[in-house]
Amino acid sequence: EAGGVDDIASLDIDALRQRVAHCTRCRLCETRTHAVFGVGDLGADWMMIGEGPGATEDQVGEPFVGQAGKLLDNMLRALDLNRASGVFITNVVKCRPPGNRDPLPDEIAACAPYLRRQIALVQPQVLLALGRFAAQSLVQSQAKIGALRGTVHRHEGVPVIATYHPAYLLRAMTDKAKAWQDLCLARDTLRARLAT
Ligand code: URA
């Protein structure tokens, strides 16, 4: 069925990008300016997955371009990555929840086939879940981020490391050391995986 969920898993990257740009699978399409597909290296080993576009991202059409994005860029730099090379950056929901409210379960579910297809096409070797919504949906858990971080989970066989959302870290300096540990765990997990 054209435009349905069933063929999302068969789209190539350009068709997927077009589908997301015109998506009407949930109510967030009514209030968005731009659907935010994601940005980065389509052959990346790393995929960073946030929650959803904020006001700036909705305007610009690119993920993590606001204040939280500056912190994410610092995290990338620490890992020798940048937006053009080594990493693909996207979100659990591609459209901004109004007023930056939390994405609702049905919105996350409606958008999940897109993220699933992005992962299948890019074939990252490690997934870094930024915050509770990314972590919970990739790991299929209701646990809090503090409980999900610190161990290696799996999504379709790909290792998932959960960490705090950069927007949270801007407010909670004390958890920055833990986020750093999470980055090290992800880097070491990737290295071990690429060595085998
Ligand atoms: N926060 C997110 O989770 N994603 C973005 O793209 C921007 C801010």
TrEMBL record:
Catalyses which reaction(s): Hydrolyzes single-stranded DNA or mismatched double-stranded DNA and polynucleotides, releasing free uracil
EC top class named in words: hydrolase
EC number(s) stated in the UniProt entry for this protein: 3.2.2.27
Domain Uracil-DNA glycosylase-like: 37-184
UniProt KW keywords: 4Fe-4S, DNA damage, DNA repair, Hydrolase, Iron, Iron-sulfur, Metal-binding
Family named by the database record: Belongs to the uracil-DNA glycosylase (UDG) superfamily. Type 4 (UDGa) family.
Protein name: Type-4 uracil-DNA glycosylase
Lineage: Bacteria, Pseudomonadati, Pseudomonadota, Betaproteobacteria, Burkholderiales
